[in-house]
Amino acid sequence: MPVACKIANGNLRRVFIILSITLLLASCASGPNQAPVRDRGTVVDDRLGIHYVSRGETLYSIAWRYGVNYASLAKRNGIGSPFTIYPGQKVLLRGQVSQKPKASSVKKVVRKTATPKSDRSKTTTKKAQSKGFVLPSNKAWKWQWPARGKILARYSASSALNKGVDIAGTLGEPVVAAAPGVVVYAGNGLRGYGNLLIIKHSERYLSAYAHNKKLLVVEQNVVKAGQQIAEIGSSGTDKSKLHFEIRRDGKPIDPLKYLPRR
Question: How many angstroms separate the CA atoms of 63 and 156, rounded?
Answer without folding.
Answer: 20
